[in-house]
Peptidase C26
Amino acid sequence: MSRKSRPALIGITTYGRQEALPFSLPPAYLDAVRSAGGTPILLPPGETDPAILLEPLDGLIIPGGGDINPKCYNGSYHPSIYSVDCDRDAFELKLAEFALKNHLPVLGICRGLQILIVSGGGSLIPHVPDVYGTSVLHRLDPEPGKRFPTEHKVKIHKDSRLASFIQQTHISVVSWHHQAVQKLPSGWRAVAHAVEDGLIEAVEHTDHPWAIGVQWHPELSKDDPNHQRIFQAFVAATQNKTQKGLIESMNYR
């Protein structure tokens, strides 16, 4: 089957190694990709050459998870930082850098948005309440073994790519994060903000054909067409890209 006739192959990075537990990922990410017409391929941390994994694929999703090690962006430690996985950090940062340099469509979700920003030289806020207060709860306090996503309003810039395919400029989102963008690197712009506190909720790359990060979790809103359009637009972008041009541009090896 040729690349043009088969469904788009979408790589999704997984959670890291946790003692004897297997590599894993919440199934909602896979369900969202399949519903949009793509075929998900799980990418566990460990490979050192991003071209080996990404050359056969049509797009990359970097999902949510634990916090990025502050050393990756010259940040400072905060007691709220949790589940740091240096192997996963290094792996996803390499994949993000490769995808951005080689024009591979890439979608960052929650932690994934932060990986995209850090890979370009940006920085993060270690703990959102310390900067933005608590007028908007971007994360509810977890209990042992349980997390509680929370809902709030987001305003999307009307001239953004995100607004063009969501077809809305005001939406409700489900989030679970305590860190956020502090400094945007060159080539990125903020295209959505939380209505009440102004926190950056989505970013787009200004030069890349399709590189977008959202701070919320659209995969958790499977019955909301606004959020599913994100995955639909992403998969459509992976199907429309010029595969030959991508392969010829790969120069990491």
User: Anything to note?
Assistant: Residues 242-253 have pLDDT under 50 and may be disordered. The longest strand covers residues 150-156. The helical segments are 27-35, 50-54, 86-101, 111-119, 128-132, 161-166, 225-240, 243-249. The CA atoms of residues 193 and 199 lie 5 Å apart.
